[in-house]
């Protein structure tokens, strides 16, 4: 009788991190099996990542290669700090984190929390971004070796490895914790907005820093670099430089700071991971059921889609509109559009910042209709590119549309309409706010026209991309999770869709440059006509392709078990 009780516990004790790594490698191989295009995109993305990693390697090794250690500590602190911030914030905004091994699938297994966290953490290190960061930051080892010999190089190598562990632990802890918060109805709205704003501030801080560097003595930044070097952002990367510059006592302290931070992040991830697995997040006390007015069918239509007819098209739009508001993964994309859509035009049209020792930072406004149109082009294509994998959001649930025989043209028009219910008001706000900020209220018309035109062209492009280049998303409560290789695929498809959309929207920029003041009056009607026509034409043509590829599309977006 003791065997059934002790056998699972004994088997659980035998599970180690290498089993998770082997499992991830096997799942990765199965995901790429029979999908040549996906393998090709993964290889291309890996080569691009390797190219950038090699360039960063030589950039960080530059002080050692030129034999000047004056700015070695500064380069290590700033480069390492930006790397850590990138790993913390960029997964929330753009590419997500690899969830090849969904933690929820281990919930019923007799695995301890320590075993699960350690195994998933080891599996997370087996990825292209992790390898690229390790290669790029290894340039610090070269610098430390030139100025401090083998002892400094050894400390720097340990620091780089600890820094990589810090990046991965931070990324997993933040995304897991934020995913748990999004599951709670009471806090997910506020948490999503605040975290998206924090993520968007990464760009302004970088731009402000670069503008300040142009007019500031480099020696003034040495103090800031020293401070960053004593924080978890820069401690692992500057330990080897400290040894090389005669501050050997600082190296063990900084490595201890790094290790303590990693342990704290893993503990935080462990708590949020367990709550995500058991579904501890709640929506608060149950509310009284509202009275049904207008019938049961009317209650299925959200307020934003209440004006639609009660037919098949209206039902599809209502369903998509409700999903865009309630699904955490989709909501995260809407927040990104809202935050970045306001930030980018402001930074572009203000031409960055100027720095004065007495007045500090000040904006330098030099906007023009052409520059404004370019910034609107970016916002429009960013909004539309969210639909590049719109069927991936559905996953296996798309089978209901296949069984029901929903025509492709009707499907795409309904999805575009539902998404536009949220995006078009955002674009209108962007046009009004940017026009007021730059002090040109008469430009609202052509700015809105440029936004709608670019957005419509992007919808046309992404209608084809979503049908021809769909990929599955993991079935997990984490809205930022990606299957292995999907991050590279998403990046390549996003780049392709943005380039194609930019080419189709280029006539709006040319018109702003050639027509002069006439474009202030013609921009809105022509832009709206161009955008609506492009979106309808794209849905019409891509709908025929969708009709022929429904079974293949369902197979692509269905997560592999």
How would you explain this protein's 3D organization?
- With 561 residues, the chain is mainly alpha-helical.
- It has helices at 2-14, 17-32, 36-60, 62-66, 72-93, 113-124, 128-137, 139-182, 185-200, 202-214, 221-229, 235-244, 250-278, 296-299, 312-326, 328-349, 369-384, 390-394, 399-404, 408-437, 444-468, 486-514, 519-557, and strands at 97-98, 353-356, 360-363, 481-482.
- The strands form 2 sheets. Strands 1-4 form a two-stranded parallel sheet. A two-stranded antiparallel ribbon has the order 2-3.
- Strand 2 and strand 3 (360-363) form a beta hairpin.
- Helix 8 (139-182) runs antiparallel to helix 12, helix 12 (235-244) packs antiparallel against helix 13 (250-278) and helix 15 (312-326) packs across helix 16 (328-349).
- The longest helix has 44 residues, at 139-182.
The helix-and-strand class reads mainly alpha
User: What is the topology, as strand order, of the major beta sheet?
Assistant: 1-4
- Compute the number of helices: 23
Major sheet size, sense and barrel closure: 2 strands, parallel
Q: Which percent bin holds the helix content?
A: over 70%
Radius of gyration: 26 Å
Task: List its salient traits.
561 residues; mainly alpha; two-stranded parallel sheet; two-stranded antiparallel sheet; 23 helices; disordered N terminus
């Amino acid at each position: 009788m003791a065997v059934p009780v002790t056998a699972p516990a004994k088997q659980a004790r035998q599970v180690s991190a290498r089993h998770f790594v082997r499992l991830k490698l096997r799942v990765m191989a199965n995901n790429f099996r029979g999908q040549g295009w996906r393998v090709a995109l993964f290889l291309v993305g890996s080569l691009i990542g390797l190219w950038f990693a090699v360039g960063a390697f030589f950039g960080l090794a530059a002080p050692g290669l030129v034999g000047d250690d004056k700015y070695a500590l500064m380069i290590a602190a700033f480069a390492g700090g930006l790397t850590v911030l990138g790993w913390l914030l960029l997964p929330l905004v753009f590419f997500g984190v690899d969830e090849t091994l969904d933690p929820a699938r281990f919930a019923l297994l007799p695995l301890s929390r320590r075993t699960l966290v350690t195994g998933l953490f080891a599996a997370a290190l087996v990825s292209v971004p992790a390898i690229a960061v390790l290669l790029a930051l290894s340039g610090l080892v070269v610098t430390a070796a030139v100025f401090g010999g083998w002892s400094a190089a050894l400390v720097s190598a340990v620091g780089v490895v600890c820094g990589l562990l810090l990046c991965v632990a931070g990324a997993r802890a933040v995304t897991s914790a934020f995913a748990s918060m999004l599951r709670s109805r009471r806090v997910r709205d506020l948490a999503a907005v605040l975290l998206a704003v924090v993520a968007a501030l990464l760009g302004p801080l970088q731009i402000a820093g670069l503008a300040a560097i142009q007019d500031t003595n480099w020696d003034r930044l040495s103090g800031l670099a020293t401070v960053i070097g004593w924080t978890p952002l820069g401690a692992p990367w500057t330990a080897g430089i400290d040894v090389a510059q005669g501050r050997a006592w600082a190296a063990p302290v900084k490595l201890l700071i790094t290790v303590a931070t990693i342990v704290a992040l893993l503990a935080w991830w462990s708590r949020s991971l367990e709550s995500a697995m058991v579904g501890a997040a709640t929506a608060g006390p149950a509310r009284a059921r509202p009275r049904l007015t207008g019938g049961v069918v009317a209650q299925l239509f959200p307020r934003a889609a209440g004006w639609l007819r009660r037919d098949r098209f209206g039902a599809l739009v209502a369903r998509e509109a409700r999903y865009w508001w309630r699904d955490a993964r989709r909501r995260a994309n809407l927040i990104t559009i809202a935050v970045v859509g306001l930030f980018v035009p402001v930074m572009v049209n203000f031409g960055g910042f100027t720095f004065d020792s007495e007045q500090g930072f000040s904006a330098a406004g030099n906007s023009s209709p052409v520059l404004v149109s370019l910034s609107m082009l970016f916002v429009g294509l960013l909004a539309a590119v969210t639909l590049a994998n719109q069927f991936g959001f559905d996953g296996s649930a798309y089978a209901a549309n296949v069984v029901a025989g929903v025509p492709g043209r009707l499907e795409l028009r309904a999805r575009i309409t539902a998404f536009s219910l949220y995006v078009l008001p955002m674009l209108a706000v962007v046009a009004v706010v940017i026009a007021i900020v730059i002090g040109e209220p008469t430009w609202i018309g052509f700015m809105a026209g440029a936004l709608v035109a670019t957005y419509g062209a992007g919808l046309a492009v992404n209608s084809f991309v979503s049908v021809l280049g769909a990929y599955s998303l993991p079935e997990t409560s984490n809205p930022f999770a990606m299957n292995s290789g999907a991050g590279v695929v998403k990046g390549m498809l996003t780049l392709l869709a943005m380039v194609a959309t930019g080419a189709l929207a280029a006539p709006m920029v040319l018109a702003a440059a050639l027509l002069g003041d006439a474009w202030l009056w013609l921009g809105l009607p022509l832009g709206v006509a161009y955008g609506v026509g492009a979106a309808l034409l794209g849905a019409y043509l891509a709908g025929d392709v969708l009709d022929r590829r429904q079974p293949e599309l369902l197979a692509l977006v269905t997560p592999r078990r």
